[in-house]
Design a protein that fits this description.
- The complex is a heterodimer of chains A (113) and B (114).
- Chain A is built from no helices and eleven strands.
- Helices cover 0% and strands 58% of the residues of chain A.
- In chain A, a hairpin with a 2-residue loop joins strand 6 (56-59) and strand 7.
- Chain B is built from no helices and eleven strands.
- In chain B, the strands form two sheets. In chain B, strands 2, 4, 5, 6, 9, 10 and 11 form a seven-stranded mixed β-sheet that branches. A four-stranded antiparallel β-sheet of chain B has the order 1-3-8-7, with no helix packed on it.
- The radius of gyration of chain B is 13 Å and the shape is globular.
- In chain B, 38% of the residues are buried.
- Classes of the chains: A mainly beta (113), B mainly beta (114).
Chain lengths: 113, 114
């Protein structure tokens, strides 16, 4: 069964600290993995996109890693800011020739001053 | 260049009623996908429209239907509303033939069923 599991479910950190969010998936055959940031009540905004051959991708203070062998990805946030408070969703697509995209439930990050 | 727009922003309906949500895709995009996102959950795929036809469908009942117009805009209709239909409804647009990660999301419509 195609699944995307994220951990932790929620996380509280102090402003300026770093954190790492995890994503494990069983989607196959693998096509690409994306991390989105979603502010409360808003649509998701893409942070990083990685295909099979990529194992790291950065976007400012956000760095995503991908291990296609273990089917794991992580999103590392450096020097967190209050505006980083949001849900972070891991999305994995399968290369089936059709539309097969699985969303994780997300990690809710709270950054406190 | 306008991004994906959705209307209305918020909506309150009563059980048993019907609702129509609207989406205008990003300029240049021809494919629209709809998602339902319950509170604290990830988005769940409802269906996708291209060339005015439903091309893919997720695990949603027939109470959920849609339409795409010649200008690529789309509507999502939900009949016989249930309390469990309360959610954020997201529209995403893309260009057919490009990778699925070239997909942009709208701000969503928050539907509350009482």
């Amino acid at each position: 069964k195609n699944q995307v599991e994220q951990s932790p479910q929620s996380l509280i950190i102090l402003e300026g600290k770093n954190c790492t969010l995890q994503c494990n998936y069983t989607v196959s055959p693998f096509s690409n993995l994306r991390w989105y940031k979603q502010d409360t009540g808003r649509g998701p905004v893409s942070l990083t996109i990685m295909t099979f051959s990529e194992n790291t991708k950065s976007n400012g203070r956000y760095t995503a890693t991908l291990d296609a062998d273990t089917k794991q990805s992580s999103l590392h946030i450096t020097a967190s800011q209050l505006s980083d408070s949001a849900s972070y969703i891991c999305v994995v697509s399968a290369n089936t020739g059709g539309f097969k995209t699985i969303f994780g439930a997300g990690t809710r990050l709270f950054v406190k001053a | 260049d306008a991004g994906v727009t959705q209307s209305p922003t918020h909506l309150i309906k009563t059980r048993g009623q019907q609702v129509t949500l609207r989406c205008s895709p990003k300029s240049g995009h021809d494919t629209v996908s709809w998602y339902q996102q319950a509170l604290g959950q990830g988005p769940q795929f409802i269906f996708q429209y291209y060339e005015e036809e439903e091309r893919q469908r997720g695990n949603f009942p027939d109470r959920f239907s849609g339409h795409q117009f010649p200008n690529y805009s789309s509507e999502l209709n939900v009949n016989a509303l249930l309390l469990g239909d309360s959610a954020l409804y997201l529209c995403a647009s893309s260009l057919r033939g490009l990778a699925d990660y070239e997909q942009y999301f709208g701000p969503g419509t928050r539907l509350t069923v009482t």
